[in-house]
Structure formats: C-alpha cells, structure tokens
User: What shape does this take?
Amino acid sequence: MALDEPQDADEIIEDNGFQFLINKQFLEKAQPIKVDFLVTGFKLDCAIKFEDTCKSCATDTSCCST
Assistant: This one.
C-alpha cells in the first residue's frame, strides 16, 4: 500500500471517507479485498496468499503486500 495518484488502469473505490486505488488487473485476481486499520498499520486480506511472513505484525502473512 502506498499513497498514489489515480492512473487510467486503476479502479477507484471509496469507503468511509477513504479513497482506495486498485489496479484493475490486480483487482480481478485478488478480489475480494479487505483492508483493516490496525494500531501498527494496515492489514490486507485478499484472494492472493503472500509467501513471506510479515515481520512488522504478529498476525498472518496477508498483512504484508511486499
């Protein structure tokens, strides 16, 4: 996740006053996507399972997208 400006290839989703930009091709593969705010940052849950263990939180691997 990062701050970014909308691109032509992005889907714009608004929820609770927040605007999320998601690449349309990625969205097709990853949906459903759920983003939660945590004390330590964000948690991303989606249909794609990431292999690396997240080092910054004690939850599952879905909290990291790198």
